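G., the chain you wanted modeled:
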Amino acid sequence: QQVLNSSNLTYADAATLSQYFVSLNKLTEFEAALKKQIALGPEHPEGYFQLAEVMAVTGRKAEALTNLKTSFDLSRKQNSKTLITQAQTDPNLNNLRNLPEFQKLISSK
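Predicted structure as tokens:
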């Protein structure tokens, strides 16, 4: 956790820490690392997508949908639909999939 507050931390460092924490199943630390990753690289949709997954599995549906929207918007700006396609089958998003808001995000142009 202390490392996340380092002023020398880069986007790549935060992404590595995110993966480290998720591999240890430490969701609180994973979420903190993702937020740092997003702060350091707000143009990267993957951080928002992963944060949406965390929010979804912890029952924070509104926050999950907000992060998914940001992720999808950034993905579309980059002409990529990989995360949008992934969201349709990602088990971490199961509790969102039937929501009208989720369906709207998936189908938005």
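The CA atoms of residues 71 and 84 lie 9 Å apart.

Shout if anything looks off.
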